[in-house]
Design goal:
The complex is a heterodimer of chains A (396) and B (313). Chain A starts with a helix and ends with a strand. In chain A, α1 runs parallel beside α3 and α2 packs across α11. In chain A, strands 7-6-8-9-10-14-15 form a 7-stranded mixed beta sheet, sandwiched between helices. Chain A is built from 12 helices and 15 strands. The radius of gyration of chain A is 22 Å and the shape is elongated. Chain A has 2 domains: 232 residues, Response regulator (Rossmann fold, 3-Layer(aba) Sandwich), CATH 3.40.50.2300; 130 residues, Response regulator (Rossmann fold, 3-Layer(aba) Sandwich), CATH 3.40.50.2300. A 3-stranded antiparallel beta sheet of chain B has the order 3-2-4. Chain B has a two-stranded antiparallel sheet with strand order 1-5. Chain B has 313 residues and is mainly alpha-helical. In chain B, 67% of the residues lie in helices and 4% in strands. The chains are: A alpha/beta (396), B mainly alpha (313).
Chain lengths: 396, 313
């Protein structure tokens, strides 16, 4: 019974959403009457409300910023862009509804979805329709395996682990690695899987792999002691910053002094530690984007984003959304698409071929794409530097 | 060897925090015959109170701790009066559900006020030197001395927080045992837990005694919250829930209703948790803790020190 009501509610909601947009879609078709230029509708799907809303809103704002910039600079081959972003509340069923709404609204290319589970559902639909899809931040492997129309901006979780292992080897950061990870979290164990596989293949020794779970994430003294006893010379933390801040504080008490490398989950550590930030001095964070990065392109993006949103500091998801729109721009220019009235499927054929040929100088790194849709980019590793009790990132 | 000592000491420290919380569960169960599932969230309220008091510039650490204890004590008594007292003659299930309701109420109020992000808690012993450092190079172990910057890495460090947790818990447990066995109010508690009706006929104020029990249990929760948040310096609206469950397990483990049982149960639980993390698997430590609980309950259904009560017809 409950299910029936959910469906009724979803359908009526979807219907309610279509009505106000009816005007837009008709104006799109009249604009597209000329063979050159016109208004190109880029769809977006992500959670704008609910628990994951911060991610959806960040991607939306990042993408909107890119669209504004592109339109201000004259559009793409005479076409102006319009971003139509729908809410999926981080729910697969609602995401598919949003996808159908967007198709009715005349969407030709899709930036989305933001979170992994809805992305898997939507990419299956998009593959059927041959609709071009680029997910800014869906990091589960299955997000883009549905078809050759699907691409991704961020690293996969195992991909991030692999890159971390390569980075350690290439830069000789350590030879004996200790790892503390959250065995109850897919993100953390996903990174660890990739890290382990690459370390085994390349002969990097992992001397301690210590786990904790969501139910016991305050006391890390045993894990830290075991890492110390194992003789590790680098601590790898593929976890989120809340737990990492506790681990760092307890490591300080127990006397663990080896260098620390973390994944993008550690972005946020500086704020979490507050006035105790000094213990994070020298921690290396592998994140494609950090708002406080000294890199000029990131700094310019951060300034523009803050201006557009009224002082909100962009997170990695905002950068991913921004880069997704610029990847579409680069591919459209490469393919020479200049007619916004072209069918979505025809446009997808041209864009997906062009995607593997472009090189995007994005703010999350210089990126190229494989035919599988996976991005290839160098990891950006930043070091936390604390001066006079204030923490900031510094490029390595 | 030194690692073993370190695991053991940390286990005892964690266990004594569990024991302090377990005392609250076991006393309330012994006297009011109810499981106060909101107990874990009183820890969280205590933590946030101390956190808020300490963030104001004028409030010294000792005063913050006192404020925390007072707020928790009052809260415990108010919860008892408002939510549990009207249900004193209701079926046990109704009281249990009410307790769960109060637990969620406190948790969601904290979410509303403080948000879901974890806050950084400043340890009450911040800046204090470690309690004990042992070196490899033949030097004598150092007590209460900061490690000099040029010294070799110590092979064993026991932090001030660990030392405080163990000492404070031991002192409180001794004081509580004395209070219950030697004072009039304590004896009244024993009498009420034995037989509520008979105690009332003997002229004992049952309602007052139950309120006192809640007050003591909540004050202990406040102390536990300060020790816990100092050892693991973070606080969020969910801080109390897992330690609350573990302490409940400790109380059952030791024999619910028994005060020495709660102490033994708590400390054993902490030590088993740390040692199984260290020597068996860091991933399976919780599974092992609960497995031990099941084995103990199969062998001794009343817990380690629990009394077997024969129901008379």
């Amino acid at each position: 019974m409950k299910n029936v009501w959910t469906k009724v509610a979803a359908i009526s909601l979807a219907a309610a959403m279509t009505v106000p947009f009816a005007g837009c879609s008709s104006s799109t078709s009249s604009d597209a009457g000329s063979s050159e230029g016109g208004k190109l509708v880029i769809g977006g799907i992500g959670p704008l409300t609910g628990g994951a809303a911060v991610y959806g809103n960040s991607v939306k704002n990042g993408a909107q910023l890119a669209v504004n910039e592109i339109n201000a600079a004259g559009g793409i081959n005479g076409m102006t862009l319009k971003l139509d972003f729908q809410d999926d509340e981080h729910d697969a069923e609602k995401a598919v509804n949003a996808y159908n709404t967007l198709k009715d609204n005349g969407m030709k290319l899709l930036v989305g979805t933001v979170t992994s589970a809805p992305c898997i559902a939507v990419s299956a639909e998009a593959a059927k329709d041959n609709m071009f899809l680029i997910t800014p931040s869906g990091s589960a492997i299955d997000c883009i395996t549905a078809g050759d129309n699907c691409f991704r901006v961020c690293f996969t979780d195992p991909g991030q682990g692999k890159i971390a292992a390569d980075y350690i080897i290439d830069n000789k950061l350590g030879s004996k690695i200790g790892v503390i990870y959250d065995s109850s979290d897919v993100y953390s164990s996903g990174i660890l899987d990739g890290f382990k596989a690459e370390a085994d293949a390349k002969g990097l020794e992992i001397v301690a792999t210590e786990a904790f779970t969501a139910d016991a994430k305050t006391d890390f003294s045993v894990q830290i002691q075991k890492v110390m006893d194992s003789g590790a010379d680098l601590l790898f933390l593929p976890i989120y910053y809340q737990e990492a801040s506790l681990i760092l504080q307890q490591a300080e008490t127990l006397g663990l002094t080896i260098p620390v490398l973390g994944g993008d989950g550690l972005d946020g550590l500086i704020d979490q530690l507050g006035d105790k930030v000094a213990i994070a001095d020298g921690v290396m964070v592998m994140t494609p984007f950090a708002a406080s990065s000294p890199e000029p392109k990131s700094a310019a993006f951060t300034a523009a984003y803050e201006e557009m949103t009224g002082g909100e500091v962009p997170i990695q998801f905002a950068a991913d959304g921004y880069d997704a729109v610029y990847a579409i721009k680069a591919a459209l220019e490469k393919a020479g698409v200049s007619d916004a009235s072209m069918s979505a499927s025809d446009m997808c054929d041209k864009v997906k071929a062009a995607m593997t040929e472009i090189t995007l100088e994005g703010i999350t790194g210089t990126t190229t794409w494989t035919a599988d849709g996976e991005p290839t980019k160098a990891p950006q590793v930043m070091k936390i530097v604390v001066t006079d009790g204030v923490g900031s990132y510094e490029a390595m | 060897m030194m690692s073993f000592v370190s695991y053991l000491v940390n286990g005892i420290s964690l266990g004594s925090i569990y024991a302090l919380i377990a005392l609250g569960y076991t006393m309330v169960y012994g006297i009011a015959k109810m499981l106060n599932f909101a107990h874990g969230d009183i820890i969280m309220v205590g933590g946030f109170t101390v956190f808020t008091a300490m963030s104001t510039a004028w409030c010294p650490v000792w005063l913050s701790v006192v404020i925390g204890i007072v707020v928790c004590t009052v809260l415990g008594v108010v919860i008892e009066k408002v939510a549990y007292k009207p249900l004193r003659n209701a079926p046990p299930l109704a009281v249990l559900i009410t307790a769960i309701g109060v637990s969620y109420l406190l948790q969601n109020l904290a979410l509303l006020i403080f948000g879901s992000a974890a806050r950084n808690f400043t340890s009450v012993a911040a800046g204090a030197p470690p309690f004990l450092t042992v070196f490899d190079d033949g030097r004598a172990p150092q007590f209460f001395t900061a490690v000099p910057a040029d010294a070799a890495k110590p092979i064993l460090t026991i932090s001030m927080e660990t030392f405080l947790s163990i000492t404070v818990s031991v002192v409180i447990m001794i004081a509580l045992t004395l209070f219950i066995n030697k004072t009039k109010a304590g004896k009244a508690m024993l009498a009420v837990s034995e037989d509520k009706g008979a105690a009332q006929l003997m002229g004992i104020n049952v309602n007052g005694t139950i309120s006192l029990t809640f007050a003591i249990g909540s004050a202990l929760a406040a102390v536990a919250s300060v020790l816990m948040c100092s050892s693991y310096p973070q606080i969020s609206p969910y801080t109390g829930s897992m330690p609350g469950i573990k302490a409940f397990v400790a109380a059952v483990f030791g024999g619910i209703g028994s005060i020495p049982g709660a102490m033994i149960g708590g400390i054993l639980l902490g030590v088993i948790e740390q040692l199984s993390k260290a020597y068996i698997s860091s991933q399976l430590s919780d599974a092992i803790v609960f497995l031990v609980l099941i084995i103990v309950l199969v062998v001794r259904p009343t817990g380690i020190l629990g009394k077997k009560i024969n129901e008379k017809v």
